[in-house]
Amino acid sequence: MTAGAGIPAEQAWLVAANVVRWRRYGEGGQELRPGTKSYRGGSKVYVIQTHAGTAHEQLTTIGRGRHTGTYITIDMATRNLHTFRAVPVHSPTVLRLCAEADVGGCWTDRQDAEEVAALLGRLSVEYRSTWWAAPHPAPCRCHECLTLSQA
Questions:
Q1: What's the pLDDT score for residue 101?
Q2: Domain count, the chain
């Protein structure tokens, strides 16, 4: 990850994802909220760490915050992200934040990043479908319903 003495490498592979445009919220998931508290819907974020084994399957992400537009590093639920993919990252700010977090989420190998992205993509669909026991509100604009309506 680093070129030595805390200087970020010029490129690393990260898993990128997008924040869901609408998420279910409230009692029984009958309300809809745009994006998340920290990120706007559709925002691109980089996954730098997974927290396997937690009840909600949390990820540590880097992305531009909803309110400030500056890069932030936060933990968030996997179910609030979609379209996971491996991307080469050249942004000095993202690479610096990844190094400062010291979590090992920057991969030097594209194949490793692609495997993690594929796994997270499968898990996010599973978590979104099992999180709410109640049926979707009508009309529903959550990620799952919007994806089905476009197909």
A1: 82
A2: 1
